[in-house]
Amino acid sequence: MDRSPEVEDLIRRVYDGMRRGDADLVVGLLSSDRHFVLIGTDPEEWYVDRDSATRVLREQLEATGGFDIVGGDPHAYGEGDVGWVADQASIRMPDGAEVPMRVTAVARRESGNWRLVQWHASVGMTNEESFGRALPT
Description:
Layout: E1 2-3, H1 5-20, H2 23-28, E2 37-39, E3 46-47, H3 50-64, E4 69-70, E5 75-79, E6 82-92, E7 98-110, E8 113-122, H4 127-131
Parallel strand pairs: 2-8
Antiparallel strand pairs: 1-5, 2-3, 4-6, 5-6, 6-7, 7-8
């Protein structure tokens, strides 16, 4: 397994498209596989098919004009035609505040181009908030 600058570049291009509200760019970076998976920060954002995922991405980008994603330091790796990435990004709100976010994704090389086949974004909570008590971290 080797570090993959190409998959790191892919996630940065997705962030750029999201930031600009460019749904065509973002959707173009997703796998054409009908089993694409998108899991977002809202409990209702769980899409296990490409059509539903792309529909909601387009609707959200149109409604918001884009998400000001501030990428962190993505760590991407790959082996053959499969890659994966993890990043500690954030979304900058209109008032300038940043909401920390965790991003993981799986990519696959399709016809020579890297495309996302799975995307997961979440907002971390403390163990006290999640489980009602402190746990070792």
